[in-house]
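If your schedule permits, I should be very grateful for your opinion on a structural question. What I wish to show you is a protein chain and, alongside it, a tokenised description of its three-dimensional fold. Would you kindly read the sequence against the tokens and tell me how you understand this chain to fold? Here, with my thanks, is the record as I have it:

===
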Amino acid sequence: STLPCAAITAWHSLIEKGNVKAGDSVLIQGTGGVSLFSMQFALAVGAEVILLSGSDDKLERAKKMGVNHLINYKSSDHINESIEAVALDGTISVIGIMNGLTGNINTAKLMSKQVRLQGINVGSKEMFLRMNQTLETKNIHP
């Protein structure tokens, strides 16, 4: 039941829009449904995953699934901290709401680092079919 919402949203962000591939680094904030699918898809294509969670138990489970870079945070991360952390010409996909619906964005840093900032929601039927093929081929289990 999570495939047509959480999974396809993660797929849309990482694979369809982000073109994540082997050797890329992916920072995932949180351990909810979209985050966990993002983690699995990123690992499946050979990307290096950095996972943030406020729960040591969830981080330990992620480690068992193949994540090597785990960070425990105690407060929600902010979009400007993501802009600071992203690589030159990197992409930030905003999927959930962590700090409310509005905020101040450091546009100077966004522009100087040539960051792509994109909002993501669920994907199309075609994306869903491609995602399901990958789930089967890579033996990914939600």
User: Anything to note?
Assistant: The chain has a mean pLDDT of 90. The beta strands are 25-29, 48-53, 69-72, 91-94, 116-119. The first helix runs from residue 3 to 17. The CA atoms of residues 79 and 102 lie 11 Å apart.
